[in-house]
Amino acid sequence: MIQAKPIPASKTLSFHLWSSGGVGVLTRSILGFAQITAESCLREILRGDRIVNTPYEIKLMSNQACKVLCGAEGEVSAKDVAKLVEKVQDEYSAHLMADGLPVATPYKNIHTQLTEYEIGYKLGAAVETADKKLAVALNNYLQFAIKYHYINEEQVYRIVGFEVYPRSVSVEDMEIDAEKGACSVKSQDPKPLLLLNGNQKIVYAYEVEWEESPVKWASRWDVYLARKDGQIHWFNILNALIIVLLMSGIVTVILIRTLRRDIAKYNSEEDLESHLEESGWKMVHGDVFRPPKHPKLLSSLVGSGIQILAMFALTIGLAMLGFLSPASRGSIMSGGIFLYCFMGVIAGYHAGRLYRTMRGQQWKSAALWTGTLFPGLLFGITFVLNFFIWGKKSSGAVPFQVMLSLLAIWLGISVPLVFLGYYFGFRKQPYSHPVTVKHIPRVVPEQSWHNHPFFAMVMSGLLPFGAVFLELSFIFTAIWKHEYYSLFAFLFLVFIILVVTTAQVSIIIVYFQLCNEDYNWWWRSFVASCGPAFYLFLYTIVYFYFRLEITEFSLHCCISATPCSWC
After folding, report:
1. 114 sits in which H/E element
2. In Å, what is the CA distance from 393 to each residue of 7, 383, 548?
3. 547 or 78, which is more confident
């Protein structure tokens, strides 16, 4: 049996159960076939993918001529035909899976003349009729090409390829034997099956051909993961490296040539009288390490950021080394979730030590904030959005049992590890300051409009986001077009560049703030680091309105709220 995986299509108007884009769903809704739910991994459940068994019957090493799948008896109602027309016009795709391999449609790239593969196959296409009008043709005839590799030593067959060649064949050009379930196509160039208004007879058929392939089992995913746009990624890396070098030069000048000399001078008591004539950041050296307002909240946010940073670094690193791969269904998302939970001990340790450095005393409540603030916000948004998706009866809704499982993982693994790390971090000696803090705080002079924290966040996010913008567009395209992203080496480099540029820009922003005699830099440095997330949020809005075609209210809520949780 071939498994069908109904998933949201690349252009989605509504995530109804009927319209999730898979053959299994279509056969049940229109043709009345029963479905057997197959095992799904955590990643597929969270994304709304559901694997079900389809009526296709394929026997090992047995070529099959034209065989009727369904539709030989009766007609499809006008309402269901109209739904099919809508899905074809919205460029829906069907996704099948055999032996863990997704079906792919081969096509020739007109620029490189090389054969490339598209995951799944289109439900249909627009064609031009004899009277020069456009009509919708349904791909109702599938030619499966299953490639196998025979191992002489073990005398076993391994499936290493699963291709499909969809065709549109009218019922008039098909000879159907209802008793045997067989069929044949009358001509080499049959007329397409055009979807009309009203009740219509639609016959689905398929044929199977087995082909021996030299591709080995370990390399069978290469056609899915191969990328032809490596030069674009190298150009993006080069552009980002230039930005890093520029920012490194600026930071080096500021730190080495200015700060080290001035800090040494201010730590000496011999030149105390000469300080009276100084200005700029040198006037606030006695207040620069004064604890900020709301230290509990700041340490919690910093700890959550460290937890996310460590999770992303390990996930991308393991994927780059091959331990996590798209070929293993759900391994990347599942690995990311569990790594996030186990990184709670690192988040708690650093947050606890920072909280003590800021002279905090209530470490237990601060640890609770660190373990629940960001995950609680994310879990709450997901839970609320689920009500909208449940209302649409969509497979994209996370089942309640899965929500309870994620809640148990969070409260049973992540939160205790955060408390454990916080305990040891709070007992650790606080970070030492290079200068002493005065007892009486200095009055901060009135600041101009361009020193506002929001303006600092906007300006600080430009360069880091510009360094990762191109790679981000590839990731978004892979997510919404259901492609497999495999360039984790490029992604790891871009991730490192993002971290470095964000840190460098934050250093420069804080330096100019201190030059304006404003020593309240703790929150400013955190807000400045949020600049790339702010532009990520804006980019998701632009991508949503100009690259996607989604009109349902529930989906507007889902996609608009998702980047908020990311930021």
Report:
1. none
2. 14, 15, 21
3. 78
